[in-house]
Amino acid sequence: MRRRTGGPRTPLADERADVLVCGASFAGLAVARALAGSGRDVLLLDRYEIGERATSACAAPAPWLHALGLSAAIRQELGAMTFSTPHGSVRYEMPWRWAAFDYRHLCELLYEQTDARFAIAKVNGRTGTTVHTDRGDVTAPVLVDALGWRRVLDANGFQPPDAPLSRGLEVHPDARGGDALDVWIERPLVRQGYGWRVPAGDHARIGVGSYEPRHHVKEPTRDLARRLDADAVRWQGNWFPHRLRSAAADGVFFAGDSAGHCLPLSGDGIRTAFHFGLAAGRGIARGNPRAQALADYAAFSARHARLYGFALALQRAIPRLPPRALTVALRALRPQSERMFAWYLAQVPPPGGRADFAAAAAPPPARRAPSRAA
Length: 374
Fold this sequence. Notes:
Elements (H helix, E strand, L loop, with lengths): L14 E2 L2 E4 L3 H10 L6 E5 L12 E3 H6 L6 E12 L2 E14 L1 H10 L4 E4 L2 E5 L2 E4 L2 E4 L2 E4 L19 E7 L8 E5 L8 E7 L4 E7 L7 H10 L8 E6 L6 E2 L2 E3 L15 H16 L4 H13 L2 H13 L5 H11 L3 H11 L7 H4 L16
């Protein structure tokens, strides 16, 4: 049985691998999953144990989790969404369900579908094909950056607040009940963004996200929890991108938040991390020259630019709408809710969906004998 832990904190002196995946959350694990059975020595690096530090609100379209064999991590499925403004609420029924899941369990399940080695190390940067960590250098001919919005393996990274990033914060009070993912679009709560409540079995996830990184969200999150008669406990927060970036640069594959793959407006970044991580891994597994694999993957990501541009335009427009007009629009769209959500899922469909994605996201081949953790 392979260890999910990173092993002892000994130096990684002159460590080598065929593929080095930096970051062991959704995107990095998806890359490793797609490489299972390829015969390549894959090494995963992360500064925490697999599943130790949650990186998101942990809700994703349930069809994706079922398709990837991750159903056991689901805590509750939600078949509706409510949108509230100061002038009323509208409930939308959906043709599919959102799934609130346990982050640690899902990451562990996903890792079990790989044959990658894993080691704990903080990635600090790179020189060519050598990655520098707090435990020493690791060299690999193929590098993947799945480290999140910091894009550590790119010398042209950026920092908030002067960056296309949103910020989110949430609390996890004990609570039961509710069959919908609730969204509040209220300027007194957050000027440019939204609040949410996600029922997750024995607790709820209540938070606020702002598209403007200079706007703090701690007090709005506390206010929303107070309004819902919930305790502001077990805080969790993160930055998340809202602009698509190059998915391949200077010989490196970028997947998930490091490539800006989180969808603007909704902040939906988990299934996109799976989507692009699987595509990157399958492209590497095909065995084409690295330059060709990078070009193919960059083109695959770029084909989504229209979707990301449309979502970003809505992100900018909706906060400018008069609240009454927004409420009228939400009510007018209610009869089309199932059609809208079917379209939304189809833009980044689960495995077995759109033809140009099916090959990239096919289930992994039979695994070779598992290797030992570094």
